[in-house]
Amino acid sequence: MKNxxxxxxxxxxxxxxxxxxxxxxxxxxxxxxLILSALANGPVTLRxxxxxxxxxxxxxxxxxxxxxxxxxxxxxxxxxRIFHLQGISDNHLQGGTLSHPVEIYVGNSGTSARFLMAxxxxxxxxxxRLQGTPRMHERPQQELFDxxxxxxxxxxxxxxxxxxxxxxxxxxxxxxxPCSISQQSSSQYASALMLSAEKGGWDIQLPGAESPYIRMxxxxxxxxxHHGGEFQIEPDASSGSYFYAANVWASRYxxxxxISVAHWPVSGWQPDQYFPEYLPLPKxxxxxxxxxxxxxxxxxxxxxxxxPVTFTxxxxxxxxxxxxxxxxxxxxxxxxxxxxxxxxxxxVYPSRPHGAEIETYNDxxxxxxxxxxxxxxxxxxxxxxxxxxxxxxxxxxxxxELRSDS
Length: 406
Fold this sequence. Notes:
Layout: E1 7-10, E2 19-21, H1 27-39, E3 43-50, H2 53-65, E4 68-73, E5 80-86, E6 93-94, E7 102-105, H3 110-123, E8 124-131, H4 142-150, E9 154-157, E10 165-169, E11 179-180, H5 187-200, E12 204-205, H6 212-223, E13 229-232, H7 237-245, E14 259-261, E15 284-286, H8 295-301, E16 309-312, H9 324-334, E17 339-342, E18 345-348, E19 357-358, H10 364-374, E20 380-383, H11 395-400
Parallel strand pairs: 2-14, 3-13, 6-8, 7-8, 11-12, 15-16, 19-20
Antiparallel strand pairs: 1-20, 3-5, 4-5, 8-10, 9-10, 16-18, 17-18
Helix pairs in contact: 1-2, 1-3, 1-6, 2-3, 3-5, 5-6, 8-10
């Protein structure tokens, strides 16, 4: 395990040179593919899979539940692995008893917690208790709890709507009635039900327009080798956004963008695939319509824009790994940037940021976004840099690849 310092000062780049960076696999796709592999009708090999805190807790949970899962190093990328899983086909896993449930730890991984809750209901008999970090216990789960109850399963929690939670059923559950679930609070609730719907015999209905992450789930389900085979996981576009954003420090930006990412996704599955198209930043960027997690990257570099940039539809950011709207406003202000908050909108004004100690709130994306700012702003110190291990454990190594003496 890597020994991380308590703080890490980001040294500005002396120059921006032509660089092609490789990045690890997509966390969102990896965790979806792990669930589908466990449900498959044969052996599945996942290539290019991310190996980080979020995917490790998913793999550990599946193993603890009885899924055959082997992991080997991916020779092409340090933070990737090759997974070999044996799907359960028509079989069911055996959970614990009501008094002695199988204990499952999910860390602060929203995808793991939500996908596993639905998976255990569909694929197992018996009881499971899911718990995570203190922050995970603050993240809402009510809509998924309610949906699983409507499908016939039992969900009880110490605090209604939040983990820790006990889930399961005494025997087989027959769910004949359609179950409708909103995409508004979190698309992960709907994705969780979609991934396990066939195994559970569920009729899941999603009112309203299809969100980008729901579209990702549907397209992965459609292309996945459910009867066994291989599945290639593409690089994580959210993680790649930091390197495209580093181009703002190039002397001839935006005319020239010398930094790029190898094997950039073109499937359309990841909303952040389109991040390079938002450089230079437009006047308005929406979390719902334009970008996913990479909107934090955009907010971090917005002070360098030629005009104010308005970021809209940020409500979901408040209930993720940290209260991200508060975090971005607070830390940008700490750096001398003018930021206005109006409801779920942030307006970032052109400013000359200065260095500061950045509180990361144990949030990987806050740490990585402000590291990009530090590539051109002296004195940018990232507190708790270890938090990047959640999705990108080699991030600072990759950042150093941008240096001319690396």
